[in-house]
Amino acid sequence: MRLPAPIQKRYQRWLARRLPRAPVVVLNQRRIFIFPTGYGFFYLGVACLLFVGGINYENNLILSLSFLLASLFLVAILHTYRNLSGLGLRNGDSESGYAGESGSLGVTLFSEHRDHHCIWLKWEGQSGQQISVLTGTESTLWLNLALPRRGRVLAPRLKVESMFPLGLLRTWSYVSLEHFCLAWPSPQASRDCPAEGGAETVQLVSSGKPGNEEFRGLRAYVAGDSLRRIDWKGYARGIGLNTKLFEEPAGGRLWLNWDALEGVGTEQRLSILCYWVLMLDQQQQPYGLKLPGMTLAPDTGDSHRLRALDALAAYPEFG
Amino acid sequence: MRVYQVPTHTRLWLVITIIACSLPQLVRGPAWQAGLLGLVLLIRALGDRQRMRMPGRWLRGLMMVSVVALTWFSFGRIYGPEAGVALLVSLFSLKYLEVVRQRDAYVVIVLGYFVCATALLFDRGPGLFAYVLLCMMLLTTCLVGINHSDTGARSWGHLRRGAVMSLQAIPVMLVLFVLVPRVAPLWNMRIDSGQARTGMSDSMAPGEISELSRSSELAFRVSFDGPAPPGAERYWRGLTLSHFDGRTWQQAMPRGMDRKDYLYQAGDKEPDWYRALMTAERGEGYRYQVIMEPTQRQWLFAMKVPVLEQGDAGLARDMRLVANDPVADSIGYTVTSYPDLVRAVPLSEEERSLMLSLPDRDVGRRARGLAQQWRLDADNPGQVVNQALRYFRQQPFYYTLRPPPLPVDPIDEFLFVSRRGFCEHYASSFTFMMRAAGIPARVVVGYQGGEPNALGSHLLIRQYDAHAWSEVWLDGQGWVRVDPTAAVAPDRIEDGLRAALSGSEYDLESLAALQSFANSGLMGRLRQWGDYVDFQWQNWVLGYNSQSQMQLLRQMLGSASPLRIALALLAGITLLLGLYMLVLLRQDRGYRQNPMEREFWRLHQRVSRLQGQPLDAGVTPGQLAERISERWPRASQAASQWALQYQQALYNPSVTTDRVRLRHLRRLRNRLYKLLD
């Protein structure tokens, strides 16, 4: 059912006011809506039919059967409400992705007082996932999120819905978690490396031969070091996980620079930078990143790449 | 979209529910229905285990057609209550064959509600209703099951949830039952529930009532509001028979009298006799409620002279109640009987000639002679009556259930030859002689006596209490009841049929069937309890109609205005649901402390209370111990020991906080308490 645009807008504003964004939300009566499902209306119709039958046959027992159906419906309101009430939701991790593709957001559901069965979670207008949360436990659900453009994509309103236990009533709530997914710029191929710190860079990259660095020694592995630089042979010998260190490249430090792409639009600049970050990472070439208001020292490795991509995604507000 | 399937953990409940809901019809209906259900369940079980392919659309259509054909074969039609219910239950079974998705299961469950409702069309006993409630609980269980899409859900959990919800719904149902106003039927759908059973017919030939006396079926039940009259006074009049053709007594209206004049129904113009009756002095009365089993006849039973308090019936000139429609279901009515009112009923000339009419000269020649002789010897009609009773007493008359046949002349043969008879013989011949002696007389058939339920609440009147007696018109006294059977077998009137016949070897065989109803031993007590429940059920549940509802509501609410009823409904439901809400959401309030936290806060609160000023909520156990030793130096050692143990239990990973450790901590704390005072 679609409402006319002005009413829709007003309704959205009302929802936003009533259900403000928060990192943790526990569902309570302020947030929970409840309404019969189609089957619930059908069931009430059956109760009415039995009522008419009981009246016409002057049969008090059939009449009380119809009253029992109505009473079950009333009791079901409480039970359906109860299934959602007290359910807590909070931010989980997020997985970033390139703009135009999709990332995913983790939502952690927790329950302190009771079991919550068959809860459906979905972004508005999309198909959902089902989960049950037992007392005192937490479960995390990953929800895919389309990332239409670069930047921080705020979690849309999440619909938490349940029809348990009888399916006669649907109870739902909208949850706006203070949660976001970073959309990296989609890489855009470009011939010229927007880099400074050595004229040979371009040629070096295009030749595609790594290893102009001198091996310098080993140090203990630290989380985030590139897996490609781990001394696997040494690990196999049993001397533990170590990372190989290399000399600075002969051509000096390589900086990917925002200013090197003058005259190009912001998003395109970021896309080109993203392309080169990925390129250089593939070559295991150490690189730094200079953006207005933010500088990332040259390094290599997965965590460095992610940091660089996140910086590109977050531009211009680095949090 | 994902396709919802009926979860496997619910299949068993569906099967159990289908069997349970169909069971009443399977027991009542034709045998092929049980076969059909068995076949469906078998096919389904094999299909679910991949042992056979599920039948396709054609095969299911074929089964459907054969079900309709079988219904036609068994009932001769496919509409009407019996056939319709049989068809519904068969459909219910067949539908299970094609349950795949959640929606199909919903359809099965809804059909189940209808199957449950139709079971109540044919039997309205408390037992069946309890069974139907059980079926409703199972249906709720199925609903829970099909909505529980976790694959690992436990089947018993569904039953528990279904039972809890059903039990919570029942009080709400009671509120609705009592308060929702009863509406008059929108259109007439009365069905013949097939309950026409043995009972009185509207004529009396020799042997008819003794036939009835072999049945111990219930005729009606009576509960008195005040004291009940003694057994010998309890004559439940049903019909008066005033036309005798020499063998059979029949109902008759006086020649020339209009039906409207003879029978007064509410809303009609009041005839003279009715007006006279209503304005006469009433005297003492007995107020009672009658709950009658279906008879398919219009007459009702009451003592003389009945004034209807509640129910729908008219009053006939011969002082009996006549229902507006034949009694097809058990009905209840409340009556006050005023014995003294009988004087207010007049005898018109037309009536007098009817009450004196006799058949042809061929019947009862000797009896006529005898009666006329008595009339000549007596000064007034009363003496004739006494003379006749004396005759029955003094001559060797026997009271028996198995009188010899009287093929030629039922009057003379009985009075002067066989002299063995049942109440109808006595009533018939007595009335005949009274008419011959010129005294207006008629036969009354009905029931006499009644056996009190041991639980004391009501009388049971069974078919074997059927009785016939006479009424004679005496100037100044009106219609006077005379029971010639009482002259022959006083026991029959005082103690009932069984007592009257127990001495006679001749009747022992017929009595054997009735003996089983004797109230002896455990079975007797159980039967009495069963009857008590049944009576209350009839009275309060089945007989709860708009009249009794209005009466109850007036008592409860002061007045039965729509506003008050609506408010009472709202209040009742809100109260119940509020109560449930409190119970269901009880754990929602606040955070529940774990045992270790509780341990800490108990000491914290005790110290706060003792020192008269609240402690900071953020103190650590160590700070708490320091605080204690500052204030109560002699407790310092115990306090630091407690703090040490507490912190170890909480933070030392090698120390487990089990019940033993908690008990140890509690003991330490209690020792500390003693030092604090």
Can you offer a commentary on this structure?
The complex is a heterodimer of chains A (319) and B (677). Chain A is of the alpha+beta class and 319 residues long. Chain A folds into three domains: 11-184, no CATH class; 185-213 and 252-319, no CATH class; 214-247, no CATH class. Helices cover 32% and strands 31% of the residues of chain A. Chain A is built from seven helices and 18 strands. Chain A has helices at residues 5-18, 38-56, 60-84, 200-207, 232-237, 266-283, 302-314, and strands spanning 24-26, 33-36, 87-95, 97-98, 102-111, 116-123, 129-133, 138-146, 151-154, 158-162, 169-175, 180-184, 195-196, 215-220, 242-246, 255-257, 287-291, 294-299. In chain A, strand 16 (255-257), helix 6 (266-283) and strand 17 form a beta-alpha-beta unit. Chain A is elongated. The two termini of chain A are 40 Å apart. The relative contact order of chain A is 0.12. Chain B has 677 residues and is of the alpha+beta class. Chain B folds into three domains: 8-179, no CATH class; 203-522, no CATH class; 595-676, no CATH class. Helix content of chain B is 53%, strand content 12%. Chain B has 26 helices and 18 strands. Chain B has a six-stranded antiparallel beta sheet with strand order 8-11-7-2-16-15, covered by helices on one side. A four-stranded antiparallel beta sheet of chain B has the order 3-14-17-18. Chain B has a three-stranded antiparallel beta sheet with strand order 1-5-4. The longest helix of chain B has 25 residues, at 155-179. Mean pLDDT of chain B is 84; it is low at 192-197. Classes of the chains: A alpha+beta (319), B alpha+beta (677). Chains A and B meet through helix 2 and helix 3 of A and helix 5, helix 6, helix 7 and helix 22 of B.
